[in-house]
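batch_manifest entry 22 of 60
target: YjbH domain-containing protein
source organism: Pseudidiomarina terrestris
requested by: lab member K.T.
priority: normal
notes from requester: please return C-alpha cells only, no post-processing; we will run our own comparison against the previous entry in this batch. if the run fails, retry once and flag.
--- input ---
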Amino acid sequence: MKYYIAAALISALGVAAAQAQEYNPDPYTTSDFGGVGLLQTPTARMNSEGHITIGYSDTDDYRRTSITLQVFDWMQATARYTDFRYSFYSDDPEFSGDQTLKDKGFDLKFRLYEESKWLPEVALGFQDLGGTGLFAGEYFVASKAYETEKLGVFDFHVGLGFGYLGRRDNAFNPFCEITDEFCERPGGFTQGGGDVEWDKMFKGPAAVFGGLEWRTPLEGLRLKAEYDPNDYQSERLPNPIDPENPREIVVDSAWNVGAEYALNNFVNLKLGYQRGNTMTFGFSLRYNLATAYQIKLEPEMRDAKYSTTSNFSELDIQRLSQDLLNETGYRVKAIATDDEQERVTLYTEQIRYRDREEAVSKAARILSNEMPEDVKRYEIAELKDGLGIVQYNVNAPYYKTAARGERFFRDEHDAISIGHVRPSELTNSEQQVTNSGYSFTPKLSQAFGGAEDFYIYQLAVMADGYYDFSPNLKLSGEIGLNIFNNYDEFNFLVDSQDNPLPRVRTRIREYADNQTLWLQNAQLVYTDQASTNTYYALYGGYLERMFGGIGAEVLYRPLNSRVAFGLDLNYVQQRDPENNFSFEDYDVLTGHASMYWQPEVLPNSLIKVKAGRFLAGDEGVQFDVSHQFDSGVSAGAYAAFTNVSREDFGEGGFTKGFYISIPFDLFFVRHTMSRGNVAWNPITRDGGQMLNRSINLYQTTEARGFRPGQN
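--- output ---
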C-alpha cells in the first residue's frame, strides 16, 4: 500500500533531466490500447530498452489510459485501464455510485525475429492478459519498413489475431490443424478478472489485420491506416447508463485512419477516424528511463601527485575523513594499520554513491595522494548496520605508477580488487559506537480501480529517526501525520460481508481513516554475521502499520555471486487501528524461504522466489522479477500463488503488482542513494500478503551483488 504517483514522478523526471535525455527522433508510436501499434492494432515494432510511454485515447465508447514499458529490447509490457463511457461500474448505486465501469488489463509482446534486409520483424503478443477477458486476444504480427530518399519511411504491418483480435473471422485458424480444440473459443468472461485464461488462447475464429504507417518528410508527422480485425458485434457493454437505450457500437467501415504528431521529444498528439463514423483523439508522454541521467556538480577526481606525508603519524586523519565523505560518499568510522604500517584499512559506510566503482576510484586517488609513499596496500572496508559487506583492496605501488603515468599499458583499475571484510579486523577496530539521525519525507499511499472511487489515496508526512546503541544494535521508528485522504470512501469494511480469510490488508480504511497521527513502526534490530558469507538479523516491536511482533532473518550471500538464499520467520499480531500501542486478537506465524538469482541470460535482472506462509495464514509462493536499466531505474512485477481458492480470494484472482524504482540522484546534482517507488497494485485483497519488514538483509548487502568484470 506504499506507492507514489507514477505520472508525477515521471513528469518530474522529465523536467529534472530533460537536458540529459538522449534524443531519439523516431521512437515508435503507440496504439489506442497502449503498446507500439497503429490505432486499434499492434505492430511487431519495439522501442529501445527503457522507453516508457504514458498514453490516453478517447474512441467515444472507450477511454483508455495506459503505461507501456520496454523492459528489454525484445519484451514490451503494458498496463491499462479502460473506462466504459456509457456503462456504470455496477447496478448498485450504494456500492459504486455513478462511477463508470473501469476495466483493467495487462499486455505482453515478445520479439521473435529482428528485422533484416530481406525479412520482416516478427512478434508474438498477448492482450488483456490476466484481466477480465473483455479485450483478451493473442496475435502474431510482422513489420517491414522501406525508406525512401524524399518521401520518408513506409512501415508495413500484417498479422493474424485471435479472440478480440479475431472477431471479424476472415481467416482460417492454423491451430485447428493441430487439434479440433482450437477451432472453438470458450465463451464467457472472468468475473472480477485476475486469472490468465490459458484455456482460451489461440482458439476460435481468427482474423487477418494489417496496415501502414507513413513517417512523412514533415518532421514529427506520421499518418496511419489499418484494417481492423474486430467487427464490434460481440462487445460486452454491461450496466448501461440509459437502460432504455443501451449502447450499440455501429461499424460502417473496417478501415481506420489517423495522424500522430510529435510536439517535441516528449509529447505526441493523435487524431483518428475509426469505424467509418467516429472521430478519436489522444496524446502520449514518452521518456527513456534507461538513458536518463543528471549532470553532477561533484568534485572532480583529483590529479595524481606524490604524497608529502613521510609517515603515518603525520597524516591528518580528520581532514582525510572529511575529504572522503565530501568527494566519495564514504563515511569513515575507523582507520587501522598493520604493525609495519604498510597496510591501511579504512572502515567506512557508503552513504551517497550508488556507483561503487566511481566512489572507489575517487577514494583510491585521494589515498594515493595523501598516504605515505611506503604504504603498500589501501583497504576500503564497507560496513552497513555493523555488517562487513565488501572490501575494496588497492595495490598502492601498481596504482600509483598507473595513475601518474610512470608505466605504459598500466590501468589504475587493474590495481583494485574486491574481497571480504576480515572478521578479526572488524571486531578489533575502534568503530564509532553511537550514532543518531532523523528525517522528514512526504508519502503517498494509493490504490487504483476501486468500485467506490477509481483512485483511493492518503497523503502524509513521515518523520523517522534512529539511534545506534552499537554498530550492531539499532532502535528506529517512524511517525506519520495525515494531510488528507479519501479512504472514507472505501467500502470494503470488516463487517460488511463474510470472508473466509482473516482481514489483514482490506482493513486499510480503518487505519487510514481513524488515525491522524500514528506510529508507523518502532523496533529494535540486532544484526551480525555468523560467517563471512552468512548474515542474520533479530528484530522486535511495532514492525509495520498493521502488525507488530518479533522475527529473525538469515541470509547466505557469497561475494559477487549470482545466487543468494534467505530465511525469515516472524510471529506477529494485528495492531489496533484505533490505538497505536494496542493489539487485537489475531496473530499468525509467517515466514518464507527465499532464493535470489541474477541469471546470466538476463543481464542486470533479479529473480526472487519466496515460499512459505503469508499474513492471512495462507501458504504458497511469491515470484518477483525485476530488471535494472543503465540509469539505475529498475522495473519489476510480482505475483503470489497460494492455497486460497479463487472464490475465497475474491476479485482479482491472486495477488499481483508492478513497480518502477527510481533513484533520486536522477533529479539532483549531487549523488544520493535514496529511491522512490512507482507501483500499481490492481486490487487489494487478503490472500498472498507479506509482512512489510523494515530490515531486509538482501537490500542491506546490495554491494555484494554480482557485477560483471569485478575482480
